[in-house]
Design goal:
alpha+beta, three-stranded antiparallel sheet, 15% strand
Length: 159
């Protein structure tokens, strides 16, 4: 025997509302996660671009570390407030990368010595490194995540 189709069945009233109430929070969580991750990756790309362009400036003979850091800061200002105290722009000695077997993930960048580009010897490697805490750039995420940092860097050889 065939069961009749119940279009206005009182037992099914509100089912769409309940299903929507279950699905919408999950859907919006995914949408907001895509927005947040997209913003983080845009910021990382901006930091890498700023580090690369600032390092290209520092390759020349007469450029100073302060000029390189100023240029990186100006480029970063297009995406974040680079003047904030938690945004760290460093110019470090990159001679650790002269060894082709070095694993970049094991390098302690904080312990590398700072350099002055104007007095640096020709053909010496240097690193322009930018660090920004996630809590400074997150647009939707929690501001209490203070241990997560985003990095951008460029390694170049002084000419």
């Amino acid at each position: 025997m065939r069961r009749p189709v119940l279009h206005n069945c009182p037992e099914r009233r509100g089912a769409t509302l309940v299903e929507t109430a279950v699905v919408l929070p999950i859907f919006f969580t995914f949408i907001f996660a895509f927005i947040e991750f997209g913003h983080c990756f845009m910021t990382i790309h901006t930091m890498n671009s700023a580090a690369r362009r600032a390092a290209r400036l520092g390759v020349g003979d007469s450029k100073t570390t302060a000029e390189v850091m100023t240029m990186a800061s100006e480029i970063l200002d297009s995406a974040i407030d680079a003047s904030h105290e938690n945004v760290l722009i460093q110019v470090k000695d990159g001679s650790v990368f002269d060894d082709p077997t070095v694993d970049a993930s094991t390098v302690d960048y904080a312990s590398l010595p700072d350099v002055e580009l104007a007095t640096m010897d020709s053909e010496t490697l240097f690193i322009v490194r930018i660090q920004v805490p996630y809590s400074e750039i997150g647009i939707l995420g929690p501001r209490w995540i203070t241990s997560l940092n985003l990095y951008g860097q460029s390694v170049m050889r002084k000419e």
